Amino acid sequence: MRIRVTEKFLWYLYRLARKKDDIMSELWSSKWHGFKDPLEMIFPDIWGMRDYLWEQYKKQNRDKARKKRFYRMINYFKIKGYLNVKDLKNRKAVIITPKGMERVLETELKFGKKEKRRDKKWQMIFFDIPEKRRRDRDRLRKYLRYLGYKKLQQSIWVCPNNVLRATQQIIKNYKLDRFIRLLLVEEVKI
Predict the structure, then answer these.
(1) What's the chain's Rg over C-alpha atoms?
(2) In a shared domain, residues 14 and 93
(3) Which of helix, strand or coil describes residue 14?
(4) Paired sense of beta strands 83-88 and 91-96, if any
(5) What average pLDDT score do residues 39-63 get?
(6) pLDDT, position 159
(7) Between these two residues, 128 and 92, which has the higher pLDDT value?
(8) I need a labelling partner for 45 at 20 to 30 A (CA). Which of 33, 115, 128, 131 fits?
(9) Within-domain flag for 109
């Protein structure tokens, strides 16, 4: 399965934002106390991230991509509702919208690392989601496939991978906890 350029770009943007948050929390710790804006030391123009993202994009795609194509992609994301570009302090800021975060989550589930459980147990999920929440049920099934779950029955799925945390995050994001049960089982015959 190949990752599309648009999904890859959103994923890079999300990881960049997470790294920035990690850097911020480290810089605001007691050892950096006293600086006005320590982030300026690392990103001289933090709000103009477009140029930095352009450089990262060029490194990943050495096929002589033009800046115009890059800005067209940013515009495409704005039209689709994945990104907002706002003026903050006379500079441009790129903001991932909730719809964009959902796309990032989907990409991460599809292409993220999946490691097998060391104890050889299987994660089992069974659910009974009502018909009025059909979209959430279908979305849950799609995400379960991405995580590596296999269907035993229509609403009973099992997975040999270590996916408990990701599964719990999906359940929490879509507020499905009252319809779902998670089990850890020793043996499954498929």
Answers:
(1) 20
(2) yes
(3) helix
(4) antiparallel
(5) 60
(6) 92
(7) 128
(8) 33
(9) no
- Residue after which a domain boundary falls, among 70, 103, 136: 103
Q: Considering the domain boundaries, does residue 92 fall inside one?
A: yes
- The pLDDT value given to residue 116: 87
Secondary structure of residue 88 in the 3-state scheme: strand
Query: Are residues 74 and 139 both part of a single domain?
Result: no
State the residue for tokens 């040999």. 160
Evaluate if residue 47 carries a pLDDT over 70.
Answer: no
Q: b vs e for 26-65, b when ≥16 Cβ sit within 10 Å of the residue's Cβ? A: ebeeeeeeeeeebeeeeeeebebbbeebeeebeeeeeeee
d(CA 3, CA 111): 8
Number of domains observed in the structure of the chain: 2
Look at residue 161 and give its three-state secondary structure.
strand
Question: What is the rounded distance in angstroms from the CA atom of residue 36 to the CA atom of residue 10?
Answer: 30
Average pLDDT, the chain: 77
Residue 153 included in any domain:
yes
Strands (E), the chain: 83-88, 91-96, 122-127, 150-153, 156-159, 180-185
Domain range holding 128?
A: 114-185
The pLDDT tens digits for 131-174 are: 999 999 998 999 999 898 999 888 899 999 998 888 998 888 88
Same domain, 97 and 127: no
Q: Is the pTM of this model over 0.85?
A: no
